[in-house]
Design goal:
Elements (H helix, E strand, L loop, with lengths): L1 H16 L5 H15 L5 H18 L2 H11 L14 H5 L2 E5 L3 E5 L4 E5 L1 H17 L3 E5 L11 H11 L7 E4 L5 H14 L6 E5 L1 H13 L4 E5 L19 H27 L4
Parallel strand pairs: 1-4, 1-6, 4-5, 6-7
Antiparallel strand pairs: 2-3
């Protein structure tokens, strides 16, 4: 239990401060460089640090680099063909799981609004498309409250959008207690097993997120049918030399890819720790 708590604390620290491409990591790295630069014994190291750190952010902000990183993280697992007919495995699945990919919350103290991120919106789009084809008996939207305590759970936002997209509200279950992807998977598995729903389950999430989600379901001994969203581009449609010109959109895409890379490494580490020694 203590090891798990420490791993969770370390994971939260890395997520908050050490994901290259994020503004918080830029701030932390700049502070380290400035401190090194202003101490006589480490001034040379500080100049090297700031130079390499600036070069890293320059690379990550290039659309060509961002697209490469995202492509390396993606696993494509279409759940239905282009003609709109589900394959045999998808048609036989009883449950469709929509894994949330984030939401944002705004409040002035008296009023509040909550929105799904672009990635979560596309997950809802794909889930609605699959539901219209395969008609599973249950749809589970998963995702809890991240950040401000007055925010609505992400799963509720997904449910509302799914209803707007034509999925009957009485067939949508909500798992709103999870704070991490690992908790989303664990809670959904427990929920469906308690209801007597057998796997495989259709799982919808983004291409970069899918590999980690499938690995977590595998750790719970659950068979899945992966259904990824269409590729989310961060290159703003640039071509030619413009793909090497920095942009904030590309930096966002790079940060997302690096985060998934670190999260996959953590998932693999935790899986190895759980394996009994021979």
């Amino acid at each position: 239990m203590m090891l798990t708590s420490r791993m969770r604390a370390l994971s939260e620290f890395v997520k908050e401060w050490l994901v290259p491409g994020t503004m918080s990591c830029l701030l932390a790295g700049t502070i380290v460089g400035v401190v090194l630069l202003n101490v006589a014994a480490t001034a040379t190291l500080g100049r090297v640090w700031l130079t390499l750190f600036a070069a890293l952010y320059l690379l990550l902000s290039m659309p060509a680099v961002s697209s490469f990183l995202i492509a390396r993280m993606q696993d494509t697992h279409p759940a239905a063909d282009a003609g709109g007919r589900p394959d045999a495995a998808t048609a036989a699945a009883d449950a469709l799981i929509v894994v949330g990919n984030g939401s944002v919350h705004y409040t002035d103290g008296d009023r509040r609004v909550d929105y799904l991120t672009r990635r979560s919106v596309f997950c809802a789009f794909e889930a609605a498309r699959i539901y219209a084809q395969a008609r599973p008996s249950r749809v589970i939207a998963t995702g809890g409250v991240a950040g401000h305590p007055s925010a609505r759970p992400e799963a509720e936002l997904l449910r509302d959008l799914l209803v707007d997209l034509g999925v009957p509200v009485n067939q949508i279950g909500v798992e709103a207690r999870s704070r991490t992807t690992a908790e989303q998977v664990a809670n959904v598995c427990a929920l469906l097993r308690a209801a007597g729903v057998r796997d495989p389950f259709i799982v919808v999430t983004t291409p970069a997120h899918m590999r980690r989600v499938l690995a977590l379901f595998d750790q719970h001994g659950v068979r899945t049918i992966a259904a990824t969203t269409p590729e989310l581009r961060y290159d703003e449609g640039r071509t030619g030399w413009r793909r090497w010109w920095p942009s904030m959109a590309a930096l966002t895409g790079s940060a997302s890819a690096v985060y998934e890379l670190l999260a996959n490494a953590q998932t693999a580490l935790m899986k190895n720790r759980r394996r009994p020694r021979k």
